[in-house]
Amino acid sequence: MKDISELLGCKYPIIQGAMGVICNPEFVAAVSEAGGYGLLATSFENDPGKLKAMVDAVKALTNKPFGANLMAVNPKAVEVAALLVEAGVKVVTTSGGSPKVLLPYLKERDIKVLHVVSNVSNAVKAAAAGVDAVIAEGSESGGMQGFNGASTMVLTPLVADAVDVPVVAAGGIGDSRGYKAAFILGAVGVQVGTAFIAAEECIAHANYKNALVSASEIDTRLMNVEWAQFRVVATPLVEEMMDKGGPSKADFSAQGPSMEAAWVQGDLEASIIAAGQITGMIKAVRPVREIIEEMVS
Ligand SMILES: Cc1cc2nc3c(=O)[nH]c(=O)nc-3n(C[C@H](O)[C@H](O)[C@H](O)COP(=O)(O)O)c2cc1C
User: Fold this and answer.
1) pTM tops 0.85
2) Best substitution site from 16, 19, 260 to test ligand 1's pocket, by max atoms within 8 Å of Cβ?
3) Ligand 1 centroid to residue 141 C-alpha, Å
4) Across residues 47-61, what is the average pLDDT?
5) pLDDT of 222
6) Nearest CA among 209, 180, 210 for reference residue 196
7) β-sheet bridge partners, residue 286
């Protein structure tokens, strides 16, 4: 395989990481139109009508390929998978748990599955279970992650040595140097999250984007939320929460609606904003095509 674009059918081997409410259909379509692989995030969205509408909205905006992310820990993951497949999705990434429960359904329907892993052992298990590729996500990544993660620099070559399926590197990739490094480490593609939040087409609020532009590489924190950790920008709210030992599982779950208030409406006092350490490299808000083309240049 030349690179992961062959499996995905897109121009460049660059997957836009799933990022909750901020990867809406318009943004997913913009990434795919620019030659990357746009990805809808389903998180815990189980409403059949809304899921179908999201897929249809992307299709109305682009005829380029795109996929969707499935949270394996969602108790309704198989039902969500069925809805996406029915709506025409051909590739899914699975994260936040084992892909095993989803694989029989997806493979029977010839859906390509890329599973997100944060260690070698889970990569080996996923490959043995039959995924088409693994996404090795290092601990510098923004958003949710497990405990005791390893950095992309360490994880990517170890996973590439351990599995015989294609490996995509995620975490800390923001420009052409990070992109090239991923290939040298043994990956055949990259997944990018944080750097894409600062794309003009992303619906993240200007306050979120500006926080990324002003944050340095040491301005993120790994916040313990009992069942997982979140890499977030060290806003005053985050510092306050961490001073108190971090939010409990219940308090964090209650953040669901306020996350939208922070991410999309820009109220940074309402909730955390997730970002990876590569935020230190973000100096401006740019069109997504410019971000992608600089990366592959
Ligand atoms: C705001 C935000 C939300 C995210 N939400 C999800 C998600 O719903 N599902 C998922 O698999 N990964 C999620 N991620 C991880 C990204 O898909 C991607 O793997 C990660 O951001 C790559 O690292 P980077 O941030 O250094 O580019 C999220 C990341 C961010 C920054």
Assistant:
1) yes
2) 19
3) 7
4) 96
5) 96
6) 209
7) 199
Domain ranges of the chain: 5-202, 206-280
Ligand 1 binding pocket includes 280 (Cβ within 6 Å): no
276 lines ligand 1 (CB under 6 A): yes
CB contact at 8 A, 68 and 84:
yes
Q: Are strands 91-95 and 66-71 parallel, antiparallel or unpaired?
A: parallel
- If we measure between CA atoms, which residue out of 240, 296, 224, 280 comes closest to residue 10? 296
Question: In angstroms, rounded to a whole number, what is the distance separating the alpha carbons of residues 297 and 293?
Answer: 6
- Is 42 close to ligand 1, i.e. is its CB under 6 Å away? no
**Could you identify the atom of ligand 1 that is nearest to the CA of residue 231?**
31
Burial class (CB in 10 A: 0-12, 13-18, 19+), 27: buried
Which residue minimizes the CA distance to atom 30 of ligand 1? 143
Label the pairing between strands 220-224 and 229-233: antiparallel
For 191-222, write each residue's pLDDT tens digit.
999 999 999 999 999 999 999 999 999 999 99
Would you place residue 46 in the very low, low, confident or very high pLDDT band (cuts 50, 70, 90)? confident
Say how many CA atoms lie within 13 Å of 216 toward its Cβ.
1
From the CB of 170, is ligand 1 less than 6 Å away?
yes
CATH for the stretch 5-202:
3.20.20.70
pLDDT at 88: 94
Residues 35/189, Cβ–Cβ less than 8 Å: no
Report the nearest-CA residue for atom 12 of ligand 1. Answer: 18
Mean pLDDT value of segment 41-66: 94
Encoded tokens for 112: 């390509």
Alpha-carbon distance of 211 to 105, in angstroms, equals 41
